[in-house]
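Input structure tokens:
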């Protein structure tokens, strides 16, 4: 865990005033991404918002069970994933509503007029969207790794897998993503 996560965790475990402030900060930092994750899993916006709220309730409820063997954010996302799985099991829904995809990660353009960087960004975003449509679970892990710079133990905590199985899962994710990105090479090769 980094020092910011240590401070946040200490504040969550402190008295009510500090806990409220820490929870507000945690919500501000993660609620939108969690909501988009749930929507990408084909939940309605209302269902997604309910899952976000339930995730934060369970973070507070289970705070004492957090072991610092992975990042706090990985633990938070594991709770979100479990919320989703429990919801899907209990809902027994007959039809899957169409949902919005995850928002595209913002990649800053370094050239003022857009140009090559903008074209490369568009190409990568399209490739990731296509990859996500075909391999939703792999895409989810790749997005979380790239957003939070998670290591093997963080991903293992999120997936509920052992390190060896997680290493293989990440390898398979990358192998499946590579063909989707291949045509984007034209923007970076001279």
């Amino acid at each position: 865990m980094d020092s910011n996560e240590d401070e946040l965790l200490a504040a969550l475990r402190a008295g009510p005033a500090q806990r409220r402030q820490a929870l507000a900060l945690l919500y501000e930092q993660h609620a939108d991404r969690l909501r988009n994750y749930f929507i990408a899993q084909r939940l309605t916006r209302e269902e997604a918002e309910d899952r976000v709220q339930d995730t934060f309730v369970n973070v507070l409820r289970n705070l004492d069970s957090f072991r610092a063997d992975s990042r706090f954010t990985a633990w938070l996302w594991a709770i979100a994933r479990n919320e989703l799985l429990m919801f899907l099991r209990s809902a027994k829904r007959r039809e899957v509503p169409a949902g919005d995809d995850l928002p595209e990660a913002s990649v800053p353009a370094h050239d003022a007029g857009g140009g090559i960087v903008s074209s490369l960004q568009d190409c990568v975003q399209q490739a990731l969207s296509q990859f996500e449509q075909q391999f939703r679970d792999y895409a989810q892990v790749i997005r979380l790794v790239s957003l939070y710079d998670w290591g093997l133990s963080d991903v293992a905590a999120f997936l509920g897998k052992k390190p060896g199985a997680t290493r293989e899962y990440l390898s398979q994710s990358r192998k499946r993503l590579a063909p989707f990105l291949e045509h984007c090479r034209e923007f970076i090769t001279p």
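The CA atoms of residues 116 and 187 lie 6 Å apart. The chain has two domains: 3-91, 115-187.
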